[in-house]
Each structure stands twice: as structure tokens, then as C-alpha cells.
Amino acid sequence: MAKSLASAQGVPTHHDRGWAQNSPNDWLPTTTADIGWVTDSKPASYSDAVSSRRSTGSRRALCLWLPTFELRLELVRSPELDSTSVALLSPGESARRTIWQVSERAHASGVRPGQLVSQAVSLCTSLTLLEPDPAHYDAAVDTMLEVLTELTPIVEPAGRGRVFLGMDGLERLFGSPRHQIDRALRSLFRVFPSPLVAATRAGLAPGKFGAWVAAASARSGSPIIIPEERLGNFFARCPVRALPVDPLVISRLERLGIHTLGELRRFPEPALVAQFGEDGKNALAWSTARRIDPVRPWHRPRPIRVSLEFPNPVGMVGTLHGALDRLVERALSRPARRGRSVTGVRMGAHLEGGGSWFVETVLREPTSDRERIVAPLRAKMELSPPSKAVETLLLELTDFGVASTQTGLFDRKNESGRATSELDFDQGEVPANLRDAVKELKLRLGHSPLYRVVEVDPWSRIPERRHALLSFDP
Amino acid sequence: MTHRPKLRPLARPKVVTVRTDERGDPVFVRLPGKPARRVAVVRERWRIDDEWWRHAISRDYRTIVLDDGTVMTLYHDLLEGLWYAQRG
Question: Among A57, A401, B33, B66, who pairs with B37 as Cys (CB 3.0-4.6 Å)?
Fold first, then answer.
């Protein structure tokens, strides 16, 4: 299944001679942004020694790649679908949904990524369509990174299902390159079922580009290791489509009859720069193995995550807005925020019947004001509402700015309990004395015994749906 | 997600024991742990049929007054066959 899925995607293997015969969509990362590389604009002629001396990363890179990662996760979750024609719908809420990833059987029926759902269903009437579940996929990626960080501290994710590991200096710990790859794959067995790990492709080479090309041309279970002295020869047969440059550049190169990196590097740099600018220069540097991008340690974000599970799936926007208010309050009150202001927020939901939904926003200016955080999320929700009723609403504060907590000398929050009646609880203001009281009760009882009544669906015909108690834990 | 509080619905229905007349109206109601009380009057009656696409809900509601003056809202779950008391 694993192998056939990969071939369904049309990924070239090392043994394929006709690299250039693959369709333009075969190579997933066609832009630098897609592959998630750090692209500094230093000259391509920079010597490797200089680049490695200036970088904090690892020159030897191992790329682990799980093609159609998301679909494979779905098949692991629902094994009964393994023998059927399955397609994963593309994320997003456009009226004309398209196919994102397809299983081997669906591919055999003519279903291809990018097709409209109507086209796909007419080609394969027994096709099972799955809603994407980004929350599930992201959790799997987090788990994968967590495990791989135990192997090497230099881990750099490049999209879901693809990760670069810095392997410099690991020989004395894990032995030969082959042993190092085996060790990395064994780590994955701890968190993923064997069919998923068995489908992983691995490539070890100097620099991320070399490692990625090696992984993409490897077969499952047969990793490719490229020593530095063979890197140039290895690239010679690679299609230009492998280059992480603008797709328009690739398209122009192919129209000019330049299909492989070997053909590309016959051209002088000035000619390529004149035609393609910076991309031309970079393409030449990659194809001649002069440019080696080290794997850089990934700064692991530590978002503040809160969620709210509804007793019954909720479809009313007003109810979701109310729940969002509560979630933002909870997230802002988390000690992990340490008074920092918020600059990036992500809101999501687990949907009824499977699937998930997410919107993300970057705030115009750092803030810790609830209304300023909620307003853009509400606007995003209006533009792209959840496609189904929401079972659990999720909120992540993803990016933070400078500390914003500044307690005034006459801060009303620090006044005595007699002044609390003037405070507006709806605005999320919790007086210090109430906060202290809850803290004491929690110490004594192990949980907060106070609850806040929140509106869930105030106009529901079913009485138990109208209001609910939410633990009050400021 | 590290923190997943669940909302606790208010006005959750509680199972009660009901004796009905030939028209299906409650005559006696017994709340858990309390003696049965006679129903003095049935004030209002309405029905809710909803969410057939999810988990169907079919309830026959009545507002009743017991012989001690207590006003209650009862419903007969037409799918389960049980009687419930509910606030709200």
C-alpha cells in the first residue's frame, strides 16, 4: 500500500530513468516557501566552508519524507478504508472543493489531485471522500518532531510529513550513516504504526537540497546516502523540477529544453542571472553542489492552548462567539503567558462527524486586550465558517510580543473586596481577592469549586442546551 | 490540547416515575426519594421533534401543578418511553 501510494503520487524513484517525463505536479515543493528552507540571499559562490562556519546548523542533512502524509494518517485511523478508493478533500471552504490526495485505487480509477469533486466522483463512483483534519495532522507532526529531537538537537520541519535532521557529529553515537538512518526510522516506530514508517523515504546528503532530492528519489525501505564527492554527479540526472525556485522559472527552463540539473549547469552564471535573476543564480549553485544549505535548529514554538468541549455539537455563530470570548479569557489568564502581549492567534474546532477547521490571524499590534484578539477571529469566522457543527472549540496563542502587564498604582483590581461590585465581570476582569480565594480553594480541594454560567444556545428549544456551567479558574 | 474543560449543561432532565391516565396525561408523579404526588392540573402541553439528522429528539412536554402547589415541567421521551422532570 505504502509503495503504491507513493507511485500514485508520481514521485520519481532513483531507478526511474525518465525523470523529466513526470508531470509538473509530481515534485511537491516547487517553491522555496513550500520546502520551508531558510533562504538567505548570500551569493551562491560563497564557499561551503564560509557558510558552515557562519551557520549554527548541521551540514550533513537527513531528510525523512512521508508522501501523502495526511492521507496515510487517515488510513491509519480508519483501516477499513485501506482497500477502498479514498480521496482527501483539499482544506478550505470554497464552493468548488477539489481533491487534495488520492489513494492507489482512486488513482487507478483516474482520480488525481486538483480535480473537482464532481469530476473525481464521475470517474470513480465508489470514491470515499474524507474531510481534512488539520488538528490531527499537526498533532502527528508534533509527536514526530518530539521523538526525533531525542536523536539530534537539530531538527527542522519542512511542512507536514517532511523533516530535516542535522546529522553532524552523530557517527560516534550511532555509527555509520546507514545506522543513523535506521536509528531515525526506529524512533518513528515508537509513535507511528509500522505501515506509516515503512512508507517513509530517507535521504542523507550534504545540505538540505541534496537530502531532499535523495529522499524523493529513494524507495521506501531503501534510503539513499550521497557522499559529498558524489553530490555533483547525483544531481546531474535530477529534474529541474526538484529546484526550490519559482515554478515559472521551472516552466521556462523546461520550455527552453533544460530538463535536468546536468543540462542546467552547462550554462554560464551570467546567462542564467540575466534570464532568471536571483533564482537563476541559486539554481546553478544548487545544481553544481556549490550551495549547501545547513539544517538549522528549529525554534519550537510553545503556544498557549485552551479548548472548550460542548455537550452537544454547536452550529450557531453567536454561541461560538460566546465560547470564543471565554476561551480568549482563559488563554490570557494562563500563567504561561507571563504578562506577554499576543501577536498571533489560531482558532480551530473539532467538527461533528470528524474533520477539523482552523483560522489563523496575525494581530496588527501586540495586545492583551480580549476584544482586540477576538475581533479579527470573529471576522475570519464570518468569512470562513466551520463547515459542520462544532464539538470542541480550540484556541492557540501562537506568537507573543513584549510584556504588556503594567499594574497601575491605583489599579482597581488590587482594591479591597468592597470595590469589586463596580468591576465588569463580562469584560474578563477578575478581582485579585476573588482570584486569591479561588487559589486557596484549589489548594484545599484540588479543583476550583466555582462555576460561571455561560450561554450556550439561549434560544434553543431544548432546555438543557441553553445554559451551561464552566469551571471558574482565573 | 493540554486543557480541555467541558461545559456542564444546566437544566439537565431527571428521570421521574409517572402514572398516566387513559389519555396519557400524568396523574401521579414521584420524584426520586420522595413520595408520589397527585397532579392537580395540566397547564400546558407542547411537543419537540428535532435533530432527526443527528440523534433524534422527540419529547412531549407538559407543565403541571401538583396537589401541593408545586409547578413542574415534565416530558415524555417518545423514543425511550421514559418520563423526565426538567427545569426551564
Answer: B66
